[in-house]
Please model this.
Amino acid sequence: MSAREWIGKDFYRELGVSSDATADEIKKAYRKLARENHPDANPGNTEAETKFKAVSEAYGVLSEPAKRKEYDEARQMFGSGNPGGFGFPGAGGPGGPGGGSFDFGDIFGAGQTAGQAGGLGGLGDMLGNLFGRRGAPGATAGRGQRGSDVETDVRIDFTEAVRGATLPLRLSSPAGCTTCGGNGARPGTSPRMCSTCGGSGLVNRSQGAFAFSEPCRDCRGRGLIIDSPCPECGGDGISTRTRTLTVRIPAGVDDNQRIRIAGQGEPGRGGAPAGDLFVRVHVAPHPVFGRSGNDLTITVPVSYPELALGGTITVPTLDSKVTLKIPAGTASGRVLRARGKGIVKRDGTTGDLLVTLQVAIPAKVEDNAREALERYAEAAAQHDPRPEITEMLRDRS
Model:
């Protein structure tokens, strides 16, 4: 995409957020729109497919702080929503209110000299990164643009999250066109260099004593002309296709954690590298076990005699079982630790199994048990289980 096309686009409007939206608001808006317009959910709907591509492109820029900063600065500099010309507000550029012209050659690298670049400093470098150019003499539009990052979601069960898993992942997303190999030309033909701009993607215009550069209209800033577009992608070099990847979920992955798979995002343009794929993992809760960092947690009901007199209990682990000793006089809520029975992370660290003891009160007490409890209550009548509260009540009487 040319510099002119990028600046003229309103990525915030594509996602339906304000220009001061937070990263979380941008992500939430993208995920909602991506789900609504995903090709899998709208088979044969070209409008939804176009919208899906647009929001993916917008998210690819606004989700990365560095790209977003460059995009915002460029929009502010040239005037957002001004595709008809590059004008500084009040600077007299073609599209600015002054009505004059401005030499953009040193910004985009066309006809740059030491004298021209002296007053702009790092501006050319900033725009060069944004538009895939380096700002040096002779730089061409064929430098390309890195592909956007793509995010998808997977759901796994608790055991898979603890032990790790290998999952097939089916994606429908923009990818390099397999028919033309990504160059946009019909098989058997090749793009040719634009003779108007000499492959730079920019042409110089003069107006009175001033000169400025703008994207070449013949090649739309690409530097290349495709005489016979590919029938599959229409000359874009990108087509939506379904592919299956095998994704390795590492052991010990956390709920809502993102896994980065380099080079599996949207393909780059003009030979630039592809973006990355980010897989967000959602872990289903386990009916018995919980998790605290590397530790597994479990709550085990026990009887009052087991706490008062002590004993042993057997509790499950993810792999087998373990026997723990309950000391006499243990209070309800105490946590026992089975070392090394927790989660083994990829770096080799191992957590523990944390067992919380919780006294179980029967809903119904049989006659013989009731008699035994009443005898116990009489025998323990001199024991006050809440001395601090009793002392407080005594002081207030």
